[in-house]
Amino acid sequence: MESQDGAELCFPQLFNTSCKKPAPPWTEVILLHILPSFISVLTVTLNLLVIISVSHFRQLHTPTNIILLSLAVSDFLMGLLLMPVEILRNTACWFLGDLVCSLYNSLSFIITSASVGDMVLISVDRYVAICDPLHYPTRVTENRVKLCVCLCWLCSVFYGSLIVIDVFITPGRHNSCCGEINVDYIAGTIDLVVSFIVPVIVIVVLYLRVFVVAVSQARAMRSHVTAVTLQVSVSQTTRKSELKAARTLGVLVVVFLICFIPYYCVSLAGEDFLSGSYVYYFIFLFYFNSTLNPVIYALFYPWFRKAVELVVTLQILQPGSCEANIL
User: Fold this and answer.
1) Lowest mean pLDDT: which of 14-18, 25-29, 314-318?
2) Which residues contact 211 (CB under 8 A, 6 or more apart)?
């Protein structure tokens, strides 16, 4: 019996402190390993297409697309770094040590907070575009948006390093047993407030305002549908474009909330709920948002579909391809 019990441990030589080896049935292996691995590869591939498209084609270098590029980078890192480690920690023992565990926790906070920060920037961008369209070109410039994106990432790096500094100082302090990794409950609570509650309040308030203004503008456009002057026609075309962008990015924000809310609701429930094995599904729903974002672009943005076609067919390797007409 002792040898059998020892064989079930991650570290058989540490009888009192070692975690047990996960031994899920084959049906759970499919749900916990094969399917998430496919989602991870899909996330990396789709977001890489977004990154190449927006970076390569000069016509796509707009303030809004710069924020989408930043979001695609965080989603790409989510699929490349966080998803595989999450699969590993839930389907096998943790053999990578406390240092890698600390780095993973830090990266998790950095990438997640950067993604949330990008969502806030998207909401601010749409708020200015819809609620103050006359000043949008002068207030929301490429240089200002690039500065905001850089500040978002710098703050995320500082925040991610700060929130796990205790783990680096005293490695293994928050591990309940060898072969397992956990996030400190206090750090998780701070993350809940900073990375979810406050940003969600900002996003919801801004988009409610955008929704009210967008509805009033749509009614105004319908009431002036008989106008025939070129100036009015151009103005209406611009407004329709901005409203369509607001709807698309609104879908992006709604999907973000749907994917993030379940995990943070479980976090609010307390430490006992976070220790349950089922929380893995909430975490992966949390990460699955990174897979859905480029799918939303493909459904709503014709420029993205055209850009992907040029990327996949390697036409971007031709001289002058960056000047191609995408819009």
Assistant:
1) 14-18
2) 250
The pLDDT tens digits for 47-61 are 999 999 999 999 999
Q: What is the Cα–Cα distance from 322 to 236, expressed in whole angstroms?
A: 30
Q: Is the pTM of this model over 0.85?
A: no
d(Cα 290, Cα 72) in Å, to the nearest integer?
Answer: 8
Instruction: Spell out the residues 6+ positions from residue 31 whose beta carbon is closer than 8 angstroms to its own.
Output: none
Whole-angstrom distance, CA of residue 287 vs CA of residue 137 = 34
Task: From 155, 152, 127, 151, select the one nearest 139 (Cα to Cα).
Answer: 127
Query: Domain count of the chain?
Result: 1
* CATH code of the domain containing 190: 1.20.1070.10
Residue 16 maps to a domain: no
Q: Is residue 3 part of a domain?
A: no
Residue 25 in any domain: the answer is no
> What is the phi/psi pair of residue 178, to 5°?
-70, 130
Q: If we measure between CA atoms, which residue out of 160, 171, 178, 303 comes closest to residue 245? A: 303
